[in-house]
Amino acid sequence: SYFIFFSFQQRIEIHKLRQGDNLILGFSIGGGIDQDPAQNPFSEDKTDKGIYVTRVTEGGPAEVAGLQIGDKIMQVNGWDMTMVTHDQARKRLTKRNEEVVRLLVTRQSLQKAVQQSMMS
Amino acid sequence: MSAAMDTESTYSGYSHYSGHSKKAHRQGRDRHKSPRSKDGSRSEKSVTIQTPPAEPLLGNDASRAEEGQDDNWGETTTAITGTSEHSISQEDIARISKDLEDSVGLDCKRYLGLTVAAVLGLLVFLTPIAFILLPQILWRDDLEPCGTVCEGLFISVAFKLLILLIGTWALFFRQPKADIPRVFVFRALLLVLIFLFVFSYWLFYGVRILDSKDTNYQGIVQYAVSLVDALLFIHYLAIVLLELRQLQPMFTVKVVRSTDGESRYYSLGHLSIQRAALVVLENYYKDFTVYNPALLTASKSRAAKHMAGLKVYNVDGPGNNASGQSRAMIAAAARRRDSSHNELYYEEADHERRVKKRRARLVVAVEEAFTHIKRLQAEEQQKAPGEMMDPREAAQAIFPSMARALQKYLRTTRQQQYHSMESILQHLSFCITNNMTPKAFLERYLNPGPTLQYDRDRWFSKQWTLVSEEAVTSGLQDGIVFVLKCLDFSLVVNVKKIPFIKLSEEFIDPKSHKFVLRLQSETSV
C-alpha cells in the first residue's frame, strides 16, 4: 500500500468561551509575514508565511469545533489571513465584539491508498 | 687539563678512570672512527672486551650488538669491527678518489674564469684613462688647449670611473660560494658583450684618432666620457640580468629527501637549473633535519622479513623463469596473512613510551644539575676567590650528574653519534656563560636539528651531483624534475609554476552592515 499526501480545505466555526473579561478560542497561532518561515514545523513549503495553528488546548472551543494542530488559517470571518503580520492575525481573531469566528483552514492529510482500503 | 680530568673522576663515581688513559684511548679511537661509523649498519659486528682503561662516556655506540644492555654502558667494552684496525671500506676508497679528481678539475675551471674576468675588468677600467692620456703623450704640441668644458669633463670622467669601480666591486667581487658544473650563461654573455664593446671603441679610436692624430682634444675627451657612460649602462644591465630578474618569485619547488621523505617548499624566481640547485642546497643545510642512517635500519629489516619467509621451488624441470618466480613470490607475500603491521604498531608505541620516559628522566636530571651552579656577582667575586670556577670548570663539575641520563636518551633516539663528550661539555659551558635555562641547554639534544648544527664529519653530504634531463643552464620551467645526489641519499626536486592569480575587488560600504532578528512567536488566542 502507499500513502497519498494531500490537502483539503475545511470550514470551522468556533464559539468563543468567556473567561473573566476575555473571550478565548483555545488555540495558539504561529507565523506571519514578519516572522521567519523556516522555523515553522507545520508548513510543507518553508517559505510559506501563513498563519498556522501551533497548539490546541484540550477541551477548548477550538478542539470542540474540530480545529487541529498544523492547520493553516486562510480566512477569518472573510478576512484574508495569508498575507498578514503576526499581530494583525492575532487582532483579527480576538475582536471583542465577535462571539463566533468562522475560519477557513487548509489541512494536510495522509490517507492510505483507496485500493488497499477496498481490499481490507 | 689533566687537573680538570681528575676533578671529574672524583665526582663521577667512575673511579677507575684516569686522565691519561682516557686521552690516549680517545686518540686511538678517532683514527678509525670514520670508516666504522659508515660500516656500522652494514658489516658484521664483533664485540671484544678489553681491560679497564675505559673510555669517554660517549662515542662507543654504533658497534654495540644489542641495544637492551644500556646499564652496562660506560663500563669496559671496546668494539672493533672488520678484521683489522686499519680497514677501509670500498666506499671510502671510491669517495677518496672522487674527491681527488673532482677537486683538481673544478678548481682549474673556476680560476680560469676568474682570471679572464679580472683581466677584462682591468682592461676596461684603464681604457678611458688611456683614451685621455694617449694624445697628451703622443702629440702634445699639436693639441688644442683644453678649455673649461674639457676640464669639467675630466672631473666627470674621474667620478664616473669611481662609481663604476665601486659598483663593480659590489656586484662582482664576491667570494664564490659554490662550484657549479657549467658556466653562468648571463655572466658569460655580459663578458662577451663588454669585450666586443670595448674592442669596437678601441678600433674606432685607433683608426680615427691615433692614425689621423686628431687635434680636437675636447672631442677626444668627450669620446672617453661616452665610453664611461656606456659602461655604466652595461653595469645597470648586469644588475638587472644577474640580480633583479631572479628576485621575483615565479616557481615553487618541492624538495623531498629520498631516504625518509622529509619535504620542504621554496619559492624561486627565474633561475637556471644549476642556480636553483644551489639555492636548494643552501637551504637544505639549514632546514632539513640531519640525515641519520641509524633511523633507517628498522624499515630495512622489516622489508627483509617480508620476503624472507618464502622460497620458490621449481618442480616443472629446469628452466629459469625469473620474472615468473618473482611475480609468484610477490603474489604469495601479498596473500600471506602476516601480522607485521601489528608488530610495527606495538613496536612504535613501545618506542614512544621509552623515549618519553627517558626524556622525563633527562629533563629532571638536567634541571637538578643546573641548580648546583650559581653565578657570582661582581661584588661577591672578591669575597671568595678560592672557590670560583670559570664556565668550563663549572660545566665539568655538573656534567657527571646528567651524563648518564643524557647518554641513555641519545641512544634511545639514535643520536649518540652526533654528540661527543667534548661537544656536550662545550655546549654546557656555553649555556652556563649565557645564563640559559636547562630547557635551553636541552633544546639541542631533544630534537634532531638541521645539518649545520653538527660537526662537519657527521654530515654525510658534502659532495653533490646534479642529475637532470634538461640542460643545467636552461631556465626553470613548470614540471621540471631534477635530482641532487650525494653518496648516501638524494634530494628530488619538483618545480611548479606559481599559478596566475586573478584578483578582483569588491567595495563594501561600512553602512551596509545591517541585521534583523529571526522571529518566531507563538500567541495564544
TrEMBL record, chain A:
It comes from the Eukaryota. It is a peripheral membrane protein. It comes from Chroicocephalus maculipennis (Brown-hooded gull). This is Tax1-binding protein 3. One of its GO terms (biological process) is neurotransmitter receptor transport, endosome to postsynaptic membrane. InterPro entries: PDZ, PDZ_sf, Synaptic_Scaffolding_LAP-MAGUK. Residues 11-108 form the PDZ domain. It holds the Pfam family PDZ.
From TrEMBL, chain B:
Residues 1-86 are annotated as: Disordered. GO terms for cellular component: plasma membrane. Residues 36-45 have a biased composition (Basic and acidic residues). Residues 19-35 have a biased composition (Basic residues). The keyword Transmembrane applies. Its main location: membrane. It comes from the Eukaryota. InterPro entries: VANGL. This is VANG1 protein. It is a multi-pass membrane protein. Residues 74-86 have a biased composition (Polar residues). Belongs to the Vang family. It is found in: Cell membrane. Keywords: Cell membrane, Membrane, Transmembrane, Transmembrane helix. The chain crosses the membrane at residues 111-133, 153-172, 184-204, 224-244. The keyword Lyase does not apply.
